[in-house]
Write a structure and sequence with these properties.
Length: about 350
């Protein structure tokens, strides 16, 4: 029977990627995700894999494009400004319908910002981040165990839908250590008849390309891709609910913010306030339908974020602005405390009691 081991979140991502068949990593060091690259540098040569520290983030993402085109499981990782540099290549991958894993362990911004945790890349991740009409699958872990499990799931989803998948964590998730159960994955051996694997003259040559100078052809490609996205939105939404069934106030948060929010919800319940916590695990597709259902009984919502307020827009859209939504946030590398979230819950409760909803 497998035993739990104490690992950093970044290390758990790397080991989980290896367990599900990833043998190719291209990246560049940047805090707070550098442990992923360091771990891959040690492990890949021992298992016959490829580790390459590219000369830049731009070079790394283009190496990922090449490996993904060959049909292998491949990943890269970075932190906020590094992902910005990769954004053109990510758009090219989406245009070529290539599966791969991109890990973003977020740090404060904009610009170089600081090395402390943040969630301010939410817009960048959930709105594509690069040019053109496309989406990334975006998964947000809230524990080291989920860092490992969602890494495997991300590779599976990327292969299933032929699209890039992003694991969006924050610096806290990457650096914290927790016991994690690492299980050998049976996934990874997916047939990819579209890949550039050589033909041996047995089939027509494949061509992978995102360029189309014919407007009606490019329009058709985009429409077909968004039909695939509809399947993702229908079948792959993930979320967690905690004490939401009778909640008057629903606190929405992901990653480390959700863990803080859960403690605040417990404290609110002890004070007699009916609070609940809703945690999106897929940030794209956002669990709109499930949150809308909560708006039929809940009277107010609070978005807890490590940003100036980005996910709050998706919360408002999901509930169709039918209930008040307030923001509880810290930025610049700061994390909201349970006491701060609790204060937001109590303030919302006072407004409800005053009939100001």
């Amino acid at each position: 029977m497998a035993e739990k081991v104490l690992m950093k979140g970044n290390e758990a991502i790397a080991e989980a990627a290896i367990s599900c068949g990833c043998r190719h990593y291209f990246g560049y060091p940047i805090t707070p995700q550098t442990e992923i690259a360091a771990y891959m540098a040690k492990r890949m040569p021992k298992i016959g894999g490829t580790f390459l520290q590219a000369e830049s983030e731009i070079a790394a993402i283009n190496m990922v494009i090449g490996a993904a085109s060959a049909g292998v499981r491949v990943m890269t990782s970075s932190s906020s400004p590094g992902v910005s540099l990769k954004s053109e290549g990510i758009s090219y991958m989406a245009g070529c319908d290539l599966p791969a894993l991109i890990v973003n362990v977020q740090r404060g911004g904009p610009g170089l910002g600081g090395i402390q945790p943040s969630q301010s890349d939410y817009f960048q991740a959930t709105r594509g981040g690069g040019h053109g009409d496309y989406h990334l699958l975006v998964l947000a872990p809230a524990s080291v165990q989920e860092m490992a499990q969602l890494t495997v799931h991300a590779f599976d989803l990327a292969d299933k839908y032929r699209m890039p998948c992003m694991l969006l964590a924050d610096g806290t998730m990457g650096q914290m250590m927790e016991p994690v159960l690492l299980e050998e994955s049976t996934q990874g051996k997916v047939e990819k008849p579209w890949a550039l694997t050589g033909t041996g003259m047995k089939r027509k040559h494949n061509i992978i390309n995102s360029l189309s100078l014919t407007p009606d052809e490019l329009e058709r490609w985009n429409i077909d891709r968004f039909k695939r996205y509809e399947s993702v939105e229908r079948d792959e939404v993930m979320y967690e609910e905690y004490l939401c069934d009778d909640a008057d106030i629903v606190v929405v948060g992901f990653g480390i913010a959700a863990r803080v929010a859960k403690n605040a919800v417990k404290a609110a319940r002890e004070k007699g306030v009916k609070a609940g916590m809703f945690r999106p695990i897929t940030l794209w597709p956002f669990p709109k339908a499930a949150l809308f259902e909560r708006s039929k009984t809940a009277k107010a919502f609070i978005s807890v974020e490590l940003s100036m307020g980005q996910m709050i827009e998706d919360v408002e859209l999901a509930i169709r602005c039918s209930r008040p939504v307030t923001l509880c946030s810290r930025v610049g590398g700061m994390i909201p405390s349970p006491a701060e979230v609790l204060a937001s819950i109590m303030a919302a409760d006072e407004k409800l009691k005053g009939g100001k909803n």
